[in-house]
From TrEMBL:
Residue ranges constituting the Heterokaryon incompatibility domain according to the UniProt record: 60-195
UniProt cross-references to InterPro entries, sorted A to Z: HET, HetReg/Transcr_Mod
Top-level taxonomic group: Eukaryota
Pfam families, per the entry: HET
Membrane spanning stretches: none
Protein known as: HET-domain-containing protein
Species of the source: Hyaloscypha variabilis (strain UAMH 11265 / GT02V1 / F)
Cross-referenced PANTHER family: ANKYRIN REPEAT DOMAIN-CONTAINING PROTEIN 39 HOMOLOG-RELATED (PTHR24148), HET DOMAIN PROTEIN (AFU_ORTHOLOGUE AFUA_8G01020) (PTHR24148:SF73)
Length: 280
């Protein structure tokens, strides 16, 4: 989970949760489409089960993000009720939203009743399965600094197709851009390791630009040797090291999944210890 228990979703007495009545029950956000990117975010909360989500019709996307400061709250509509969510979650839902069809999203702050401690414990214990069963996991990186956001938007607006091409030399892209992406708080949160590693198809989203995790990995790798960002090589940066360890963990888990390991498999304790040491 990408937030500490002390953080507040801001969804309080205004919204009444219907209890989950199945042992593997979860809620999903039914995110309604909008032609106008700046239109109000409207969604519904639906109940399903993880066993149902193994069916081809019950697909969903899991969201991995940093909750952010609840001081910067924004309004969305949930089942016709106006609720407050953090700016990061608001931005993620707005930018994920389709202009033509509804999407099914799992996001912890809304899909778990944060006021019910018993439910939180049960849902946290299911977190591995929630992320491993999702069709995709979107890692949403929200840059609140206007200059940083504009720099990233400008780069990806003109270069995203080349980012995704396997035939283009990735080293042509500015190492500063890679360093800026890797500086995001998401890469320094312990919670996100399981969210990434267990995901079948992780994708990174910045604003409305979305691309596969492997594309970011290739960009970072292209700058690990002779290229620099300011006064130090990108390879020596904390963000680069953490990203590399996360990628290795994800690849290792996917390899084991291909070897038909059980679906609920969690990251080996020794790997978590190794990753934690890298962070220190």
């Amino acid at each position: 989970m990408a937030a500490t228990p002390a953080e507040n979703t801001l969804i309080t007495s205004k919204f009444s949760y219907r209890p989950l009545d199945k042992s593997d029950g979860i809620r999903l956000i039914y995110l309604l489409p909008a032609l106008d990117a700046e239109a109000e975010v409207r969604c519904e909360l639906i109940h399903t089960t993880l066993s149902n989500c193994t069916d081809i019709y019950e697909h969903y996307t899991a969201l991995s993000y940093v909750w952010g400061d609840p001081i910067y709250a924004k309004t969305i509509w949930l089942d016709e009720t106006a609720i407050l969510v953090t700016h990061n979650l608001f931005s993620a839902l707005r930018d994920l939203r389709s202009d033509s069809r509804p999407l099914r999203i799992w996001a912890d702050a809304i899909c778990i009743n944060q006021q019910d401690d018993d439910e939180k414990l049960r849902q946290i214990s299911m977190m591995g399965k929630i992320y491993s069963l999702a069709d995709h996991t979107v890692i949403y990186l929200n840059f609140l600094n206007p200059q940083e956001a504009a720099k990233l938007d400008g780069c990806m607006s003109s270069n995203l197709d080349d980012w995704l091409s396997s035939n283009v030399d990735k080293s042509q892209f500015s190492a500063d851009i890679a360093e800026l992406i890797l500086s995001h708080t998401w890469f320094r949160r312990v919670w996100v390791f399981q969210e990434l590693v267990l995901s079948k198809d992780p994708r990174v989203q910045i604003g409305r630009h979305r691309f596969p995790w492997i594309a970011l990995y290739r960009i970072v790798q292209s700058h690990r040797q002779p290229f620099t960002t300011g006064l130090r090589p990108l390879a020596a940066s904390e963000g680069s090291r953490l990203h590399s360890e996360m990628h290795k963990a994800h690849q290792e888990h996917q390899k084991q999944e291909r070897m038909r390991m059980k679906p609920g498999y969690l990251i080996p304790p020794q790997l978590l210890v190794h990753i934690q040491r890298v962070r220190e």
